[in-house]
Design goal:
Number of helices: 4
Number of strands: 0
Largest sheet: none
Strand content: under 5%
Helix content: over 70%
Shape: elongated
Distance between the termini: 60 Å
Length: 106
């Protein structure tokens, strides 16, 4: 396969993964700021857990695509991806942890 075609395919995969992480980060940021009271709803907790389960495998998938892009001589955007990924996963895990601690105190 021609390098330009490989690049376009990998770039599209990278964008799709990054878009999903951005959406997750926006959801987590909303929970962290103005919508904290909404988090007490068990549906929101289940939604957060479900989203987290869907996001976690994207880390490895993104880095496989990034490695391939780097092998072809292109920028991979690893730094931006890692920043968004770890920030949002950290917020999600903290919220789930805090929620489970609140449930134990009742």
């Amino acid at each position: 396969m021609e390098t330009a075609t490989q690049y376009q395919i990998l770039k599209a995969k990278r964008k799709g993964i990054m878009d999903r992480v951005i959406n997750f980060e926006e959801f987590c940021a909303a929970l962290k700021t103005s919508e904290l009271d909404r988090f007490n709803d068990s549906d929101t907790l289940y939604e957060l857990e479900w989203r987290l389960n869907k996001i976690e495998p994207l880390y490895e998938e993104f880095h496989q695509v990034a490695t391939r892009l780097e092998e072809l001589g292109y920028d991979s955007d690893r730094t931006e991806f890692d920043r968004l990924y770890f920030k949002s996963v950290g917020i999600a895990r903290a919220k789930i942890h805090d929620s489970s601690n609140e449930c134990k105190s009742y």
